[in-house]
Each structure stands twice: as structure tokens, then as C-alpha cells.
From TrEMBL:
Alphabetical list of PANTHER family matching this protein: BETA1,4 MANNOSYLTRANSFERASE (PTHR13036), CHITOBIOSYLDIPHOSPHODOLICHOL BETA-MANNOSYLTRANSFERASE (PTHR13036:SF0)
Gene Ontology cellular-component terms listed: endoplasmic reticulum membrane
Intracellular or extracellular location(s): Endoplasmic reticulum membrane
A single MF term (Gene Ontology): chitobiosyldiphosphodolichol beta-mannosyltransferase activity
Protein name, UniProt field: Chitobiosyldiphosphodolichol beta-mannosyltransferase
TM stretches of this protein: 6-24, 113-134
Organism, as annotated: Aspergillus campestris (strain IBT 28561)
Amino acid sequence: MIETIISIAFYISTAITLLICMLPSQYGTTTKDKPIAKDDSPSKTNAQILVLGDIGRSPRMQYHALSIARGGGQVDIIGYHESELHPDISSHPRISIVALPPHPAYLQTSHKLLFLLFAPLKVLFQVACLWTALAYRTKPAKWLLVQNPPSIPSLAIASAVCFLRQTFLVIDWHNFGYTILTLKLGDGHPLVRISKWYERRFCRSATAHLCVTSAMASVLRKDFRLQAPVLPLHDRPASHLRPIADTNIRREFLAALPEAQSVRPLILSGNIRVLVSSTSWTADEDFSLLIDALCRYSELSKTSKPVLPPILAIITGKGPQKEMYVNQIAELERAGRLENATIRTAWLSTPDYAQLLASASLGVSLHTSSSGVDLPMKVVDMFGAGLPVVGWNRFEAWPELVTEGLNGKGFGSSEQLVEQLVELFGDPSKLETLRTGALEESNRRWDDEWNPVAGKLLGLYPA
């Protein structure tokens, strides 16, 4: 009997010892001295940035990393490394990339029933990868800045790791995860209700919260009942997004694009308007609005309004619905419904995308906002390049970004979008008025917004 008790005690003590040894190291025990950057200079602080998505398609999180690094901090960006990063990210000595392994191909599906079946397996895979990256592949940091959404499983894993490593958790709210899930499954689905509970429960572990609009901050304080500081941090363009004043430079860049070869003479002569839209090709952006508007514009230019100039629409981005829309566009072209409108898709490098925005005539945003309180980053980028914008405006936070008639216009239907294209492209003076407002907006920069809010929170800039 005594031998049995001794054996049990031995196994229990061994298991506890192994568990203790496997716990991740804590901030403040292994980092008593100031953290050291790659360039061997002491850092003011160190931070981890978690992006449960493609880092290259998360400009706001890349801007966070650059701001922390430029302020003297050391940064690890944890996420999927699938597309090209901001060039300053790749070259900065204070920024490191910790790449997460991609999901197995068999777990990727757009089928509703298969999505429900594969979702738990996908979450389990992500949990293992996230835990390993946050707890073992990286050194303990003072701050962990998490992009939300996605919420599952990042918020729970981040909360647990921050508790074990004595790290301060900061959530950067771009939207609400459960409202995006509603688009796919419907408002009454059990998974939507579980997601809503999960998001509200685990966000309470954060030391502070950043969010993209004042309207979102209000929801977090009132509906989520958060006690921690909630700080609105509006998106602003980064330094690489700048207007181009020289008309010839703009035309030469556009004419050199492979997507513009069929209309190159019209570009060089200034007899075509270039419309730009960036999309993730997902359900929260109804791209058919733009297609229908361009079909109607083309029809009007051949009948009642022959003075309307032709349009080249360049659509950038990647996403699950891209192929469906590309096929739809091809069918419309064969049917002759886009004779005065050319639609091309593209995936550009960061510098080329910035130059495209600065060279185009008008930007279009189709972001519909699942929550009503988020804002499209693409509009911020367009303003940074001095590009006026027309966009879907049927959500609460739209006026926080666009001043109607000054730097852009809002629409709520395909018909209204057609009216705006006809008005702006039919009367150059009206488009020029919006461009003047967009150029004024381009003076508002990311650092001016970030330093007194996030920079102050992280201790990089004085109060």
C-alpha cells in the first residue's frame, strides 16, 4: 500500500515538474535588462503583434509595427506570410516576422455544410500553431497587440499566454467577429451566438483596447461594458501613400500597366477616366453594385449622354469570390454591355498600388460594414494619395471618414452610383472639387494619430 502511494506521488510530482518546466517563460524574469534589437541598440520596449491572417494584407497592423519600431521598440509580427510585406517592414532591424504554418488544403472550403464540419478542425490546428508561436517560438514581450477579428481562437489563446507570460494584452478592434460570421450563417445561428459570447468574454482580459472609429468605441463601452481604456485610433495613410502632382507622370505610370494596354492611347491623351477599387472579394462587399453601374454607364454613353468619357476600372485584391465575378464580367463583355467600360483585375506591389491610387481619377469603396461601426482602410489609402472617393454610405461610421461633397460622395444603390459617375465624369469641375478636398485630407498622417494614442499607451511617447 505504501509503495503504491509512493509510486502515485512520484508520478504526480513528475507530471507537475514537467508541466512547470513546459510553461512559457515570463516577461520580467528573463528580460530584466532592456530588450536588444537586431542592430545591438537597446529598445524602449518590446511588443508582439498577432495577425491571424495574411500579414501583407493587414496594413494597419504593419503600420503599428513600423510605429513601434520607429519609436524605439522591438517588434515580432506573428501571422501568415503569404503576400508581399511593406518594404520598410522587411528591412527594419527592429522588426522580425514569425510565420504561422498555413492550414492544410483539405480544410479550406466555401461550402456551408463543409464549413461547419471543418471549422472545429481548423480551430484546433490554429490553436496548436498559435500556442506554439506565442508561448515558445518567441521571447516574452511586454505587450501583445492582437488584431480582431478574427476572434476565434486568437483572443482565448492570447489571453492565456499573456496571463502566463505576464504580458499586457491590447486588442485592436477593426470590426466584430460575430457580425462577420452573421453574413455567412445568419443572425440566429447558434455559432453566431457562441461567437458573440466568446468575443465579449475574452476581450475583458485586455489591458486596453484600440478601435478604428469613435462609434465602435461607444459600442465597446456600452454594449460590451468594458472597464479598461477604449481608445479610438482612426486609420490614417502611411508615408508611402502620397499625391502625384505631375499629370504626365500619372499618365505614364497608368499607360505602362499591363492591365491598361488595350486603352493605352486613351490614357496618354487624357481621354479616359481611371477608376480604382480595392476589394477582398468577400460577402461584405457587393461587387455587383459596381458592375451594374458600369453597365448602365456604358449604355448611357452610347445613347442619351454620348459626351461621357470611357472608363478603365482597375480592381485590386484577392479573395474567395474573385473567380465568380471575373466570369460574370467576361460574360457581360461578350454580350456587349461594357463597350465603354473596361474592367481589369490586378494584384500590385505596395509601391505600385500607392502610385496607382495617386494616378487614378476616382476611387470606389464597396465596403458595406457588417457591424455598421467599422471603416474601410482602402478609403484612407485613397485619401492619402489625394484620390477622391465614392463609397457605400449606409452605415453609422461613414461620416467619420468622408465629408459629403468635399472629399467624396456616398451612395446606397447601384442607381445612385451611376448618377455619381455620370455627374463627376461628365463635369470635370465637380471631380476637381472633390480632388481638392482629398488632397487636403492627405495631409492627415498615421504618425500624427498614432503617437499621442498608441504611442503614449505603450510608453514610447510622453503624455
